[in-house]
Amino acid sequence: MMLARSQALRSGARFQTALRAGTGSLRLAGAPTATVRYYALAQSARQDALQMDTPQAGSSVFQAQDTFLRRHVGPRPEQLEKILKTLGYSSFEAFVRETVPEEVRYQQTEELANSIPALSEDELARRVEQLAKDIQLYRSYIGMGYHGTIVPAVIMRNLLENPGWYTSYTPYQPEIAQGRLESLLNFQTMVKSLTSLDLANASLLDEGTAAGEAMILALGNTKDKKKRVFLVDEHVAPQTVSVVRGRAKGFGVEVIQTSLVKDQKACMPSASVVDPSRVMGVLVQYPNLDGALVDWAPLAKEAKAHGALTIAATDLLALTMIKPPGEWGADIALGNAGRFGVPPGYGGPQAAFFAVTDALKRRMPGRLIGVSKDTTGRPAYRLALQTREQHIRREKATSNICTAQALLANMSAMYAVYHGPKGLRRIAAKVHSETLVLKSLLEQFGYKIQNDSFFDTLTVQTAAAQVKASEVMKIALDAKMNLRSVDKDSVGVTLDETVTQEDLLAIINVFARAAKQPEQSIEDLKKVAEKHGLHAGELDTLKIQGGFARESDYLTQPVFHKHHSETAMMRYMSGLQNKDLSLVHAMIPLGSCTMKLNSASSMMPLSKPEFNGLHPFAPVEQAKGLQTLIKELEHDLGVLTGFPAVSLQPNSGAQGEFAGLSVIRAYLDANGQQHRKVCLIPTSAHGTNPASAVMAGMTVVPVKTLNDGTVDLEDLQAKAEKHQNELAATMITEPGTTGIYFANISKAFDIVHKYGGQVYMDGANFQAQVGLTNPVQMGADVTHLNLHKTFSIPHGGGGPGVGPIGVAAHLAPFLPSNPVVSSGGAQAIEAISAAPWGSASILTIAWAYIKMLGFTGLRSSTEVALLNANYVAEKIKHKYKVKYVGKYGNVAHELLVDVAEFQPLGLTVMDFAKRLMDYGFHPPTCSWPISTGLLIEITESEPFEEIERLIEAMLSIADEAQEIRDGKQSKEVNLLKMAPHTIETIAQENWDRPYSRERAAYPVAGLRRNKFWPSVSRIDDAFGDRNLVCECGDVEEYAGL
């Protein structure tokens, strides 16, 4: 079943043929087939960075003149010419010829240039309005983990729409990230408190993936290899079950979904269903899918007796009123925090939460914020227990979690801070009160409510009122509302904080019309509320009935009680923001992270309710405008990658890796190649690669990296031949993580294909491919893209992200599905993420970015990014060793600086990183892909002046290091070892350091005009891990940091 590389190339050739015809007939993930026609609101001329400030000859006077390219690219044309001249080139064409290997580049054609026409920012805004008009924003009462919410305007404006928050990176450098670290610690504390468990992480991707992580945690927690069964209650959300099943396959876990209630008591199933000694974990929903509250305590006790963990998928708002999982014996609680101020967004992004008992803390997936201290002894926040994470454990990891949902977690944390425990309780009580009124009137109409106990969801048995469920659904749609279709005799209704009395009345009258009962009025609702003793003044004391009422306090920390006026809240968020370095302040030159401009024009659609307010399981015809956008994005990504099929479902790059490998796994299985399980991965690969391979059920075999930074073809050949009967795939990044293109990459792919394997190209560095080459050109079968890198979705301080995959034609039938909304291929794998199109609302950002640049603008952006990296390499190479360069001495879009030569001076990578903070920069990627490396990436968006400022800083730090070599500073106390220097340190009364305050604070003159100050001194990581504190406790103890 060996697949020649030409198979992938042929699929690409078909795609190019479609381009020449002017219509792309693409295999889209969201439908069996779809035809996407190109559109252009203006006939845009070819965009070129050197001419971006010059009107195009022959263009119409009616054509938009203010192109987005000139706003997106930082250096001006004359500066680009200067850079080219410095590097010895007369044109971009000459530069690209010696930077991107001929073996990798594809031929530029008119068809490609016209494949994605460019829109101006104004044209894009008008296009957005057109699409928004094609979206029917019905009131959705579907539930299933997605709820309407009211986003406080102060949070919307000062956090979600604030580049000071959304352009920052994951807080690996805590001295310049104390603000968002504090907010994420608030999130952890909020989750810990509401669930009554011991520890919570700083968010996961969504509820489905969180449940999958919990299952693997339970597997890793048992030492009994016979325990390979994971029980799931029959009333767990179907999208969650699908994600869990997909995760289980790679680990050899059997998922059994069955009823875990017998005779109205929660219990393990009978031995005829499963041997309890084989069970390692149990998943329940609380409240369950139908809205019922179940006392799971007996089940938790029984599961514990059999050595199994109990996992509760729960609801944070409900937990303000119902007994928390930690109090009835759950080991893990997880769920979706979206109803704390984050709209459903047609599936996301929203922050998932994950809390565990103390015994499980070192197995918990995801980021964990802890409290340590800096060199002055002051408390400081940091990422704790990082040795658990995939970038360290690699193939030994059981989770590939990298990106989380930090921005959305911060929104939910601020929602809790703003409302406080009393405010949250009132919101919950209002929702529950309205549900009580709804239940009362529905029973009055003759309907039967299936669940006796509930918080906000009722399952209504329509047959009891001699009404078909389909009739209720039809009348509801006519009234512009969506209910949940349960079966032919039942519908579900879930209420939320957005429901007004008019909304409630409309819901009630839908059921009244269906049952041919008199329609009700607002006064009727008030009478029912009065009858049940429901008064606004008593919301604080309203209790859930049936023995489920919460009695314990929650959110007792001062931060949840102090910032309830808008002024106080605004200043609190602003104070945190001011502690964090983001793209608002300076370049963030993180290698393999692509911290480019997140333009205002591309961000604006996200705030529109038409795009962020849709329920992911609303009828597809209501989302026509967003579906059009999704198909256009799939098409454009197909153009850029060369692949005929794309899935947007994976909601992070690591999820994209897992999805791509799972698709390969399914293809091999379908072709009788189940025995193929070996995945060849270079030693220089991203840490997520081996972790993802293990998750997909593959065995990782490492491949050597040569001294020149490329993959060792001889070692690849030897290992492919050795494992030819078991070879499933290879995972290779292009350009490599060492910062250079691999000219022989097609030969590497030919080797893998020759021995029956599939080729997975890691798209983390697709930034250096766009418009110049693509995976199909090189012979890949599948790739993932990071829309939060290459395509301008902001990093958000650690998420959200999107990791779509493109696949060759033979893999298209296996693209991921969704159990609720039809999507994926004909032989689709299980869901990768909970929603059919993943984090759909932020797809608007990548879509807008591509549309405004067009194909030629995207290509020009790539060329400028390559140029900027090579300029920095050229300017600093006389004082630093640039570890790897290509055939002509050039790097790709990033350069790897090796500081090993400074080790005899007592200096480490981290010393250089912390000193760069004193110059007002975020450090590059540290100690990766080599332990002594600084991986520097300069995006196309950075102004020439900022690039020069980084060069000046790097050269100045090299001079400071030279002073140690010359004996002018000691190895123990010097400008680098003592960095970063806070304003408090500089202002201290006693100064006993062998350098001046001025040199510490203002090492170059430009910093006197504008300087970002770290808020804490260097943090003691080891102390933080030895003394683990991962909740805010009394947050105000740390408020002065």
UniProtKB/TrEMBL annotation:
Q: Where does the Glycine cleavage system P-protein N-terminal domain start and stop, copy by copy?
A: 70-511
The EC code for this enzyme is 1.4.4.2
Q: What GO annotations for molecular function exist for this entry?
A: glycine binding; glycine dehydrogenase (decarboxylating) activity; pyridoxal phosphate binding
Decide whether keyword Repeat is in the record: no
Keywords tagged on the record: Coiled coil, Mitochondrion, Oxidoreductase, Pyridoxal phosphate, Transit peptide
Q: Which residues carry this modification: N6-(pyridoxal phosphate)lysine?
A: K789
Biological process terms from the Gene Ontology for this record are: glycine decarboxylation via glycine cleavage system
Query: Where is this protein found?
Result: Mitochondrion
Q: Which Gene3D superfamilies match?
A: Aspartate Aminotransferase, domain 1, Type I PLP-dependent aspartate aminotransferase-like (Major domain)
* Chief place of localization: mitochondrion
Record bears the keyword Coiled coil = yes
What are the Glycine dehydrogenase C-terminal domain coordinates in residue numbering?
A: 861-981
Which cofactors are named for this entry? pyridoxal 5'-phosphate
Q: Which CDD domains match?
A: GDC-P
Coiled coil start-end:
706-733
**Reaction(s) the record says it catalyses:** N(6)-[(R)-lipoyl]-L-lysyl-[glycine-cleavage complex H protein] + glycine + H(+) = N(6)-[(R)-S(8)-aminomethyldihydrolipoyl]-L-lysyl-[glycine-cleavage complex H protein] + CO2
Alphabetical list of InterPro entries matching this protein: GcvP, GDC-P_C, GDC-P_N, GDC_P, PyrdxlP-dep_Trfase, PyrdxlP-dep_Trfase_major, PyrdxlP-dep_Trfase_small
Q: Which SUPFAM superfamilies match?
A: PLP-dependent transferases
Q: Which GO terms describe its cellular component?
A: glycine cleavage complex; mitochondrion
Q: State the similarity comment.
A: Belongs to the GcvP family.
Q: Describe the subunit structure.
A: The glycine cleavage system is composed of four proteins: P, T, L and H.
Protein purpose: The glycine cleavage system catalyzes the degradation of glycine.
Task: List the protein's name.
Answer: Glycine cleavage system P protein
Organism this protein belongs to: Malassezia psittaci
